[in-house]
Amino acid sequence: AYADLRAAPGPIDHAFIMVPAPAVPAVIDQCCELKIPVATIFSAGFAEIGPAGEKMQRDMVAKARAAGLRLIGPNCMGIVNVQGKTPLTVNAVIDQVELKPGPLSVISQSGSMLGTLITRGQARGLGFSKLVSVGNECDLGVGEIADQLVDDPDTGAILLFLETFRDAPNLARAARRAFEKGKPVIAFKLGRSDVGRRAAASHTGAMVGTDDTAKAFFRAHGIMRVDMLETLFELPQLVIGKRPPKGKRVAVVTGTGGAAAMVADRLGVLGADVVPPSPPVIEKLKGQGITVNDAVITDIPMGGSDRGAYTAILSALLASDHCDAVVSVIGSSSMTNPDVIKDRVLKAEPKTKPLAVYLAPRADNGLLLLQEHGVASFRTPESCADAVNTYVIWHAPTAEVKVDAGKIAAATQVLKDSVDGRLNELQALRLFAALGIETVQSDVVNDPAKCPAIAGPSAIKLLSPDIQHKTDAGMVKLNVEPAQLKAAVEELLARARQHFPQAKVDGVLVQRMERGLAELIIGYRRDPEAGPTVLLGLGGITAELKRTFSVRIAPVSVETAHEMIGEIAELAVLRGFRNLPRGDCEAL
User: Fold this and answer.
1) Beta bridge partners of 173
2) Which of the residues 116, 190, 369, 567 has the least number of beta carbons within 10 Å of its own beta carbon?
């Protein structure tokens, strides 16, 4: 360690900076002067503490970029290259364990989690390739580092511990490239609850978005998301070398019913389909003198797993196309006799299909044996179910959607014509029309004496970008007959002058009443983390009351739009549920 970089022998490949935060910028100046290519900043006290720290971090990055210096951190634990035997970190775990090389590379926004993953993974016989703590991601972020790992020959799977998205476009690109190369990207992300979002924000200065947006981002780019930390390092063995399945069907075989029921029950809660043996499987086993029934769990009677029965059943399930993954549960014999695992699992050609083995007792040696033979093994029923469900809901990255440049240009012009980017409802309708979306007949009335002639009832609404939730404000009237139109317009204009004197009023919007089978809401926003998103949900005045919606990363294809419609149970009424009239889902 040196007090001054100029005192260190050069050239320097990588500087690890651990001085108090106010002293860091001066060290960055030295790095720039000495043309050091990369520096990792351990020190905390930057963006995560507030505006003053954020400004210091921003100025430091600007200086580094001008000099061609790349930064990792600040507020991070450093990096570990296991194959290269380079532990550039202060994580105390490095002093305690002999790191085992392997295919797992980890990028973590939490520094301390590196030690957690190392110790828990090493105890299970797992080997690591690269481990990177990114902290505040002032420069190099998760996405850019993941992109490097895609091309790293020693990395077989990329594991992410995330608190937020700061580098979403690069992460999306890296995940798509990883999928093409057959390297699974697996993420554990905080922020499912309000508590989790606040905790993440206070930890690394993250501004965390909604969990629904995160879920949509992972799905769009082929990233598998796990619910449990333990699954983060247990899942790779199940999915390395595999592609997304055709369905969500899981077969379960066991010699210990209660333990298997815990896994199956959890799978059911998560939404996976636990399926019984198919008739061909039952017939095949019958020909081998083994009787199984069509129960959802193939539970071999006590003492019946010997003499090859368990192995034959597991082999038949692995070879059958009626399921997409298989769970094998083994009881206490896995702790007392390792040969049970060899005879029942390893002889069943376990690599023909994704196979998850849950050992019900605490059987550390059994877990290690399975790991050594490349078979995914699990210590708890919950992590086993989490891993299997994560696999069966895994999707390939969604296809890139080509957008109509002419429509985008026309819509952009409508936005330019608005004041301060705020649209009243008529301008919004013009925006939709520019995008090719059919809109309702609409007229703007500023003089009640000049109301349009509309056959039949009208809907009238005060036209103002300053008044939200116009129904609550009493600024909407429905089913207004032609004879009542003039008086209704006068009433809305007078009410606006009385209750909202500061609001910009553009008149009253008069529209022909429309009727249909359902009222829906479609929302679009640029998420600050994940980028453009589209939301579909139930509409009307209850739109924010009932949290029933589907979210995707934009733009969405027609196929994806149909998927979103299919995800909302209440929209079964549009699909001819119980002989109800069918809605025009293609138009939707």
Assistant:
1) none
2) 567
What DSSP line would sit under 34-94, residue for residue?
TT-SEEEE----SGGG-HHHHHHHHHHHHHHHHHT-EEE-SS--EEEETTTTEEEE--THH
Beta bridge partners of 444: 509
Q: Which of 10-14, 185-189, 300-304, 568-572 has the lowest mean pLDDT?
A: 300-304
531-540: Cβ within 8 A, 24+ apart: 531/168, 531/169, 533/213, 533/216, 534/564, 536/561, 536/564, 536/565, 536/568, 537/568, 538/568, 538/570
Q: Which helix (H) or strand (E) holds 429?
A: helix 425-434
Residues 6+ apart with CB under 8 A from 62: none
- Reading the block at residue 51, the tokens are 């505006």
Question: CB under 8 Å to 372, separation ≥6 — which residues?
Answer: 125
Q: Which two tokens stand for residue 541?
A: 């005045």
Q: Over the stretch 430-450, which tens digit does the pLDDT of each residue have?
A: 999 999 999 988 999 999 888
- DSSP states along 249-268: EEEEEES-HHHHHHHHHHHH
CA–CA dist 127, 103 (Å, integer) = 6
Distance (Å, rounded) from C-alpha 144 to C-alpha 441?
Answer: 49
C-alpha–C-alpha distance, residues 223 and 435, integer Å: 31
Other residues' Cβ atoms within 10 Å of the Cβ of residue 291: 10
User: In 3D, which of 74, 30, 72, 34 has the Cα closest to residue 56?
Assistant: 74
Nearest to 120 by CA among 235, 227, 236, 230: 230
Query: Tell me: the pLDDT tens digits for 552-577?
Result: 999 999 999 999 999 998 888 888 87
Q: Which helix (H) or strand (E) holds 196?
A: helix 194-204
Q: Using CA of residue 131, residue 191, residue 124, residue 310, what is the dihedral sign?
A: negative
**Residue 443 half-sphere exposure toward CB, CA atoms < 13 A:** 15
